[in-house]
Write a structure and sequence with these properties.
7 helices, CMP_dCMP_dom, binds zinc ion, 5 strands, alpha/beta, tRNA(Arg) A34 adenosine deaminase TadA, 47% helix, Cytidine Deaminase, domain 2, 15% strand, catalytic activity, Cytidine_deaminase-like
């Protein structure tokens, strides 16, 4: 169950995705939250740099490995505007982070991008559970997902 108090983290993810779009990057944003609800770190996509691995979920996984104990990581939640890709899900699993809550699913994203005529990515889209089977994962969040859909529409119509 996604708690009412957690919706603000999800809304922040959508804001971060919008910030990425404003600086010409793909609209993805993520927030790392401790067990007590404290926001520890946040980031948005930075692949416009030319480094296609600069996904926010990957950055947060590495931040958590550098700054949190294994117990703190296991009790933390990563909120994100879009479901983790296989690379980020693997990083999340390897560093032992806890629950993931996403606004829109990878399946939704794949459908949207296909509708927008975007060529298929070089890395296959998979649900998180196919990469990290035992993780607690929640989403999508329909109202907010429509906002994420709109950000992707804007990104691909301007590029
Ligand atoms: Zn990723």
């Amino acid at each position: 169950m996604v708690k009412e108090t957690e919706l603000r983290h999800l809304r922040r993810c959508v804001e971060l995705a919008a910030e990425a779009l404003e600086v010409g990057d793909e609209p993805f944003g993520s927030v790392l939250v401790a067990a007590d609800g404290t926001v520890l770190a946040e980031d948005h996509n930075r692949v416009a740099s030319g480094d296609r691995t600069r996904h926010p979920e990957f950055e947060l996984a590495r931040w958590s490995a550098a700054n949190m104990t294994p117990a703190e990581r296991a009790a933390a939640t990563v909120f994100t505007s879009g479901e983790h890709c296989p690379m980020c899900a693997a990083a999340h699993g390897w560093v032992g982070l806890g629950r993931i809550v996403y606004v829109s699913s990878s399946e939704q994203l794949a459908t949207w991008l296909a509708e927008l005529g975007v060529p298929a990515p070089p890395v296959r889209t998979l649900p998180i559970h196919q990469v990290v089977p035992d993780l607690v994962v929640e989403g999508p969040i329909p109202d907010l997902a429509e906002q994420v859909h709109e950000l992707h529409r804007r990104f691909h119509s301007s590029s």
